[in-house]
Structure formats: structure tokens, C-alpha cells
Inverse folding.
């Protein structure tokens, strides 16, 4: 059956009066899903906006296509906020993970997401990147790897919600 997950995230950014690093959400993400193709729960699944399918990391030696894709990717910038809402569609079917001896769930037991961001340092004229993810202690502040200017603060875990 087709399932849909909504992922939301919000970062606080320094005032716009400071030199801008053009901070932006990259159009990729990683999400933990239970994969009926390889029969494993809690698999890291990589998504890229515009691709027809995602990639399940499977076991360490074998990745495979996953019946999933990014269906929506909406970015909003406020005065001192950078917000993301993305929608992921994926096919799910019930199965039992024999290795972990547990049943699969439509949204895995302990879902997590990793969301990458990119930026351009105006001083060094170089690019950089970092990511936020749902399973880390907060708050987390990020600074430019080239000039050490503050980029953003992550105070809330990204939301992961299975839509009806």
C-alpha cells in the first residue's frame, strides 16, 4: 500500500544584516524505513528530489532501489528562520524481519531523518555543507568551516509524521 510521510524542519539563522552565506536546504534526505524488498526493518533509505525511486542501503554489502520518492519539497525563509516541509511517498507491505525477529511497521519503530544543507562563504568564495538529523541532542549551532561565522541553530528535532 502507498504510504506518505511528512517531514518538517526549522532552523534559526543569524540576522540578515550579517553577511549572508546563502544557506539552503539540499534536495536530498535520508530516512529510516522498513523495507519489504530486502525484508529488513529500520533501513536507511536515501532520497534525491526528482528521482523516480530511492535507494535502500540494505545490508552493508548490497544496496537496492526502493519503491519510494520525494513527492514534495517546499522551502520557506523568514526573517531569521529557514523552514522545510517535504513529503515522501513509498510503498509498504507487511513482513517479518527474520534477522531481528520483529514485524515491520508502516513507519519504522524509531524513525529518524537526516537533512543536508549547503552554503557559500562570501569571504573565501568556497562552498560548504552540514546536516541536521532527528536523533541528536539539541540545541546544535553550525558555523562556516571557512570563516567561522555562525550559520544556523537547530533547536527542535525535525518532525516525522505518517499522513493518513
Amino acid at each position: 500500500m502507498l504510504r506518505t510521510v511528512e517531514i518538517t524542519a526549522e532552523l534559526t539563522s543569524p540576522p540578515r544584516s550579517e553577511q549572508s552565506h546563502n544557506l539552503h536546504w539540499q534536495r536530498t534526505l535520508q530516512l529510516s524505513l522498513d523495507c519489504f524488498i530486502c525484508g529488513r526493518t529500520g533501513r536507511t533509505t536515501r532520497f534525491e528530489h526528482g528521482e523516480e525511486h530511492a535507494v535502500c542501503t540494505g545490508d552493508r554489502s548490497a544496496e537496492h532501489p526502493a519503491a519510494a520518492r520525494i513527492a514534495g519539497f517546499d522551502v520557506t525563509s523568514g526573517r531569521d528562520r529557514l523552514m522545510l516541509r517535504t513529503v515522501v511517498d513509498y510503498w509498504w507491505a507487511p513482513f517479518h524481519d527474520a534477522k531481528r525477529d520483529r514485524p515491520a511497521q508502516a513507519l519504522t519503530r524509531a524513525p529518524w531523518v537526516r537533512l543536508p544543507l549547503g552554503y557559500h562563504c562570501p569571504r573565501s568564495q568556497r562552498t560548504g555543507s552540514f546536516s541536521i538529523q532527528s536523533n541528536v541532542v539539541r540545541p546544535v549551532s553550525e558555523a562556516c568551516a571557512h570563516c567561522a561565522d555562525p550559520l544556523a541553530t537547530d533547536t527542535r528535532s525535525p518532525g516525522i509524521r505518517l499522513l493518513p
Q: What stands out?
A: The chain has one domain: 2-163. The chain has a mean pLDDT of 93.
